Amino acid sequence: MMRLLDRYIGTTVFNAILMVLLLLISLDTLFGFVAELKRLKLDYQLPQAAWYLMMKTPKRIYDYLPYASLVGCLVGLGSLAGHSELVVMRAAGVSLSRIVWAVSKPMLVLVLVGSAIGEYVLPYTEQIADSERQLQRDGLEPGMISQSGVWHREGDEFLYFNVVEPNGVLHGISRFRFDSDNKLLETSYADRGITQGDHWLLENVKISRVEGEQIFTEQHQTLRWDSGLTTRVLNIIALPPEDLSIQGLSAYVGYLQEQGLDASEQALAMWQKLLQPFSIMALVMIGISFVFGPLRSVTMGLRIFSGVLFGFTFKVVQDLLGPASMVFGFSPVIAIALPIVLCFMLGWYLLRKAA
Q1: Alpha helices in the chain (DSSP H)
Q2: How many angstroms separate the CA atoms of 122 and 101, rounded?
Q3: Which candidate, 34, 29, 36, places its Cα nearest to that of 64?
Q4: pTM for the full model?
Q5: pLDDT digits (tens, 9 = 90+) for 271-310
Q6: Do 90 and 26 touch, CB atoms closer than 8 A?
Q7: What CA–CA distance (Å, rounded) separates 321 from 332?
Q8: Residues near 105 by beta carbon (within 8 Å), at least 6 away in sequence
Q9: What pLDDT band is residue 142 in, cutting at 50, 70 and 90?
Q10: Which phi and psi (to 5°) does residue 204 adopt?
């Protein structure tokens, strides 16, 4: 009997979360589609814009899952409370902790699915979406440096790539070599670079060398380029930190620290991803405590509004504490964990009062 009751509560909440998540993704995709209509250009037309938005769906799922869990929990448990089903359950001797456990079981599934999307799906689809749109929309004129490319430093060379494809193909490769006095010695531009395992093969290369007051140029149809850059490293540096996997962020943080560079932004993004499952569970606990506490007898509309408001506040606090940790020098773990701990404490307090 208790298994049937757990399944009923869990299914009700799970379906409500999926409904809210679908609504949020649909609205965001619609707004994104309207925005993309203003960016149609060259080969980037309606079919390509639709494909771009579809490839952005995993990121939307990952980003909205915590807040959909909060609002969905309020909707699901709120519907049970509105039909007095929770009152009947409590009167029949079902403990509050049992109801919390029934809600938590489907949430564990969502946490696992969200973590898998963020680790294995999101980085790949984001790079495909951005690289394809860049190629289709802007094209690549010789020597052009786009606004959405990638800068990288290797030894005495500064490198810039207009587009980095996840399959080991680079487009628009600009290289700038300096001496120890930061004097420019050589620049080069290649239309494309293809990985050959231990080196890169550059196509349509133009090299300009500065010797005294003179500049000498040479061109090559193909040219071997020996570089320590691998496809894995490029796939890491081509994405913003929030779109990388935990493994990618960990590798990137280690690489930057070895180079003596600041890795605080990457460390912050890594802790955000590591602690996101706890964010989901904390917001779900808040949803449960609200239904059994201050929002027990209010309308469904007020519950949804309260959930949206609380979720928005939670996000703003995390977004403020994250950059603050980089400015004031305290640990990014504190910046991400503090709102989560406060949510758990508030939820536990309200549930204790309701018990």
Answers
A1: 2-37, 46-55, 57-82, 85-91, 96-116, 122-138, 231-237, 246-258, 264-292, 300-328, 332-354
A2: 30
A3: 29
A4: 0.86
A5: 999 999 999 999 999 999 988 887 777 788 888 888 889 9
A6: no
A7: 8
A8: 6, 10
A9: low
A10: 50, 70
Q: List the structure tokens of 198.
A: 């231990």
* Token pair of 214 as six digits: 């003179």
Would you say 81 and 291 are in contact if contact means Cβ atoms under 8 Å apart? yes
Distance separating alpha carbons of residues 51 and 20, to the nearest angstrom: 23
Six token digits for residue 167: 């399959």
| Cβ–Cβ < 8 Å for 237, 153 | no
Instruction: Please work out, in degrees rounded to the nearest 5, the angle formed at the alpha carbon of residue 331 by the alpha carbons of 325 and 335.
Output: 60
**Higher per-residue pLDDT: 355 or 122:** 122
Grouping H, G, I as helix, E, B as strand and the rest as coil, residue 334 is helix
What is the radius of gyration, based on Cα positions, of the chain? 26
Please report, for the chain, the start and end positions of each structural domain, with discontinuous segments joined by +: 2-137+264-354, 150-239
Side-chain half-sphere CA neighbours of 261 within 13 A: 13
- Please tell me the distance from the alpha carbon of residue 157 to that of residue 23, in angstroms, as a whole number: 48
Of 59, 86, 80, 63, nearest to 14 by C-alpha is 80
- Nearest residue to 322 via CA among 333, 312, 314, 311: 333
111 or 154, higher pLDDT: 111
Structure tokens at 75: 């909707």
pLDDT digit string, tens, across residues 247-265 = 989 888 887 777 677 788 8
Residue with tokens 């990457």: 266
Please name which of 287, 299, 298 lies closest in space to residue 346, comparing C-alpha atoms.
287
- CATH, range 150-239: 2.60.450.10
